[in-house]
């Protein structure tokens, strides 16, 4: 069952007397399904790829070592080229590098990188076992780090952190545009 876009019920969707119409009820059901669908999916350990049903999804476990940052960048740029979205490679590579580096620095346990193309949106997720979300701090002008959330704010269409049954997921979305999406091979 595909989940449709979630939107707030429009006042025109209400019948007289304030009772919701069939459209408003359908929107509520879609919203509830979206909220609970993530909790209903079977848990897979982070050291294994997340199971997916389509060719527009990719998932890779990452080891807890500095070389995983470079590996994550290569995996993402390779998959984007495979999907015909090479124009997003530079931005996605920078943001994946930032989110994976932060996960390695500030968490313990296994990591997983997920990439999904949904219509005209590219969703990237980094899963870890820590429940605390990212912390935005004041950064000196000459500091070498600490600008990860600023990069996410500037370069993404949306980003956030979601608690999961195994820890948390840091995610960001990029608008994929109308690139020539060739059907993936295999």
Write the layout of secondary structure elements.
Blueprint: H1 22-40, E1 57-62, H2 67-82, H3 89-106, E2 111-118, E3 121-128, H4 148-155, E4 158-164, E5 167-175
Antiparallel strand pairs: 1-2, 2-3, 3-5, 4-5
Helix pairs in contact: 2-3, 3-4
Report on the structure:
The chain is α+β, with helices and mostly antiparallel strands. The chain is 33% helix and 20% strand. The chain contains four helices and five strands; from the N terminus they run αβααββαββ. The chain has a five-stranded antiparallel beta sheet with strand order 1-2-3-5-4. A hairpin with a 2-residue loop joins strand 2 and strand 3. Helix 3 packs antiparallel against helix 4. The protein is globular. The two termini are 24 Å apart.
Strand numbers in spatial order across the main sheet: 1-2-3-5-4
Classification by helices and strands: alpha+beta
Give the N-to-C terminal Cα separation.
24 Å
Profile the largest sheet: 5 strands, antiparallel
Unreliable runs: 1-16, 179-186
* Strand and helix order: HEHHEEHEE
Task: Note the overall shape.
Answer: globular
Percent in strands? 15-25%
